[in-house]
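Supplementary Methods S3. Complex input for the S-adenosyl-L-homocysteine-bound model.
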Amino acid sequence: SDTGAQKARLVTKEEWLQKWEMGNIGFHKEQGHPLLQKYLNVLLNGRSGLRIFFPLCGKAVEMKWLADMGHSIVGVEISEQALKDFFAEHNLPYCEKPVPEIPGAKVLQSTSGNISLYCCSIYDLSSSIVGKFDGVWDRGALVAVNPCDRQRYASLMIRLMEKNSSYLLVTVSYDPNKHKGPPFYVPESEIRSLFG
Ligand code: SAH
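Predicted complex, serialized as structure tokens:
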């Protein structure tokens, strides 16, 4: 298919914040994503106590699931409201701390310590700030970044991964001439060239 129609699309930070403010969050799955249940064993691969990254996390309930299984969760999200809603909706106490390396950013951390959600742009992160991860749950993330930023996004994700890590990616398949996105259509050939 031709993805030309979406190549030049730009969704600004303000537009995302507005979606959260207006409750325009049809992407949020109250019950969690069935594909994570289905492929959980692929993500974990028999391992326990993993560090798992949620890029562009929103208030994904899967963060709570995996934390309850004993994993450490790190997420990043530009909407502070999304992160506050996450902790409130799960009745999780948390504290806020500045992130010295990133001016204006903060991290919201569950009091129990196993969920750390960074409120900043993903492009502000690096492995020296958040470390590296054993697993990644990418749902509504690669498909939500602006098409012009995909290479930058994928390179960052690769730098954030440990040697033996697993990356679960959810994409959507449709005719990009019929819907402007997000979620954007990312053809499989492009995924191969982005991630190798
Ligand atoms: N992964 C979540 C949310 C998907 S929607 C889920 O499955 O429900 C995409 C999210 O990315 C939105 O909440 C938006 O606010 C956030 N976002 C968009 N651009 C971002 C960026 N550059 N850095 C961090 N978060 C971003």
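The chain has one domain: 13-195. DSSP finds eight helices and seven strands in the chain.
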